[in-house]
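Bumping with the actual sequence this time:
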Amino acid sequence: MGFAVGMEKEKLQEKAVRGRYVKVAVGCWFTSTGKAIPKMLKYEDEEGMRHLMNNIQVLKTEQKYYAGILSHKYVCQAVVGTRIEEFVLLYYPGENTWNMVLAEE
């Protein structure tokens, strides 16, 4: 029983991903084993313009608990214009929502 309590304590101590959070709609491909792989996303900027990012490359995935809430963290990159942008996608299965986290400028 003490082992489970220790695991719960670890789950609550993850640090939040730093950066600017943007709500996004994500198109995923699912493998035969049920693993989700983000392939494209759409988001709206501060001026109300909608943007599409295709050909997302997932560099790393992790299952994390932020404040005790399960999320799936995807470290990604995509070509935006002429630059390669790196960003984080967070999927919250309890709410079935996605956030893109951009590095603060």
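The tokens above came from a reply further down the thread. The beta strands are 20-30, 36-44, 50-53, 57-66, 69-80, 83-92, 97-102.
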